[in-house]
Amino acid sequence: MRYHTILGSLAIVVSGCAMQPSVSTSKEEKPAQPAAVAEQTVAAPASAQPAPQPVAAATPSEAPAAAPVAREPQEYEIQPGQCWVHAQVRPRPVQSTQEVVVKDSVNKITVTPAELEKGFKQVVTREGTKTYRIEPPTYRVVSEQVKIRPEVKRYIVVPAVYQDVKETVTLEEAKTVLDQCRAAGTRYSTGTGAMSFCARQVPAKQEVVKVKKLVSPETVRVETDPAQYKSVTRWIVDKPAQAVEVTLDPEYTKVASTEVVRPVEANQIILPEEKRQLQVTRFEGTARIVSRQTICDPDINDDLVTRLQQSLVKRGFNPGRVDGKLGKRTLDALTEFQTANGLAVGALTLESLTALEVQ
Question: Phi/psi of residue 326, each to 5°?
């Protein structure tokens, strides 16, 4: 049948639908069930038999007093008309967001230069004095330096220096998956239901993020323009006039000069750091092999598959078109749901129907 072919490609049927009632000779530890499906209360299809009750294995009659008592694996009693599958429980993926700083915060400095105003300064070039008609005064010449421009400071901004650094961020951790393989002589044990799996390590997924690290912040260098002077010659009275006193008025001259109207200003602002959000996947639990009761092929009908597809869509898993056909997209969506909830994957098990609330 088509459904049997699809399910057979994903899991291994431990016992066929026509198996006679007997106690299984293989002992396998039953793993703990998830909280959501701890007890399977969903009703199986009309032809399905009730789930078998686990039979506790006999404990050793004598054990050393110092050694701890090991927990014995549980056995399943298979009933006629039941179908079972040997499948794996995968580690449950957990998504989280990691924040990475791709650029550090830095101080930004802006400089407003000084405002200067040009003008003229009046300088006395000859002092006033008194003279006489009889004997004129005598003078001596003096050379003097006059400041025509004061000292001016200038601020020069030295830009910040960054260094490109590559950082490796783990997007998905390494995990271990189980693949079907041939080992332990299972190829020759036809009809026993034994199956072997080989563990394979899937490497972690990483991404290299380019980050700009601040090497040196932005600074200010101060440069000073020296004051400017001009040499002026002055006449100084060496000997005043005698006799008739005559007053001589002083003489002036205008010299070009520069004055500071507003001094230089430096303002500082802080540029915030730049961040990037990365999606990181980690896995909870480890991969393990379990036995689960499944729906037999004759019990899989369009109504059951339709309710299964509707339940998957309600929980955010896309099975494709809701048409009652158990195709690849529906099985892929079921596998995603089983992986996310820590259930055995690859088959339409009773515990999956219970978790999906499919009656």
Answer: -85, 80
Question: Alpha carbon of 298 to those of 17, 82, 274, 302: distances in Å?
Answer: 10, 11, 60, 11
> Is the torsion defined by CA of 128, 129, 133, 135 positive or negative?
negative
Domain ranges, ordered by start, for the chain = 1-90+291-359, 114-160+217-263
Give the Cα separation of 335 and 346 in Å (integer).
6
**Residue 129 contacts by C-beta under 8 Å, 6 or more apart in sequence?**
137, 237, 240, 247, 248
Strand order in the sheet with 251-262: 138-149, 228-239, 115-126, 251-262
Query: In which element (H, E) is residue 115 found?
Result: strand 115-126
What does residue 334 show for φ and ψ, rounded to 5 degrees?
A: -65, -40
* 3-class DSSP assignment, residue 10: helix
Question: How would you classify the pairing of strands 175-181 and 196-202?
Answer: antiparallel
Which of 277, 271, 272 has the alpha carbon at shortest distance from 100?
Answer: 277
Phi and psi angles of residue 204, each rounded to the nearest 5 degrees, phi first: -70, 150
- DSSP string covering 203-225: PPEEEEEEEEEEEE--EEEEEEE
What H or E segment, with its residue span, contains residue 292?
Answer: strand 288-294
Tens of pLDDT, residue by residue over 72-127, are 455 667 788 889 888 888 888 887 888 888 888 888 888 888 888 888 878 888 88
Spatial separation of the C-alpha atoms in residues 303 and 326, rounded to whole Å: 11
Are the C-beta atoms of residues 75 and 55 closer than 8 Å to each other? yes
* Residue pair 207/316 in contact by the 8 Å Cβ criterion: no
User: pTM for this structure?
Assistant: 0.38
- Strands 54-55 and 152-158 turn out to be unpaired
What are 313-320's contacts with CB under 8 Å, separation 24+?
315/356
Q: What is the DSSP letter of 347?
A: S
Residues 143-183 pLDDT 10s: 888 888 888 888 888 888 888 888 888 888 888 877 777 66
Closest residue by Cα to residue 282 from 101, 91, 99, 100:
91
Q: Taking a C-beta distance cutoff of 8 angstroms, is the pair 86, 11 a contact?
A: yes
